[in-house]
């Protein structure tokens, strides 16, 4: 290989590396951004008692879970439809960072309360092994139905109407 050919190979390699570097996305959260993230409230049994007297869906989820992501818009639609009739949806994220939770909730513009279960204490208490899992809780605070896997708007509405006595 002559001198000109080597020079061309090195230049091509250099241009390739520059192109790769230019195409890389910047990180979503820098250390200064994550320092300004407001903490997501940790879900506890006391949290649930605050909603006594309302029908509740306790939904365990994670942003990395594809069925959870598919279910979230339907949860929001059901919440909008029934919240004035006494329904509350409590979404409990399992073990993700506050920044991840907040980013996901903001992206989907979710309006129902979202909590964290960083150490999976609540998830373990309720035996959550599959995501998403939704617990349907009556106005007296008793779990009446437990569903594993993503639910669509129709199935969610059916269970909610049962909780609300409609």
SSE diagram, text form:
Blueprint: H1 3-23, H2 31-35, H3 45-49, E1 55-61, H4 66-82, E2 87-94, H5 98-108, E3 114-117, H6 121-125, E4 133-137, E5 143-148, H7 153-164
Parallel strand pairs: 1-2, 2-3
Antiparallel strand pairs: 1-4, 4-5
> What is the chain-wise order of helices and strands?
HHHEHEHEHEEH
Strand order of the largest sheet: 3-2-1-4-5
Q: What is the assigned CATH homologous superfamily?
A: Glutaredoxin
Largest sheet: 5 strands, mixed
- Percent of residues in beta strands: 15-25%
What separation lies between the terminal Cα atoms?
82 Å
What is the C-alpha radius of gyration, as a whole number of Å?
Answer: 23 Å
Explain what the structure shows.
By secondary structure, this protein is of the alpha/beta class. It has one domain: Glutaredoxin (3-Layer(aba) Sandwich). Helices cover 46% and strands 18% of the residues. It contains seven helices and five strands; from the N terminus they run αααβαβαβαββα. The chain has a five-stranded mixed beta sheet with strand order 3-2-1-4-5. Helix 5 links the parallel strand 2 and strand 3. Helix 4 packs across helix 7. The longest helix is centred in the N-terminal third of the chain and has 21 residues. 25% of the residues are buried.
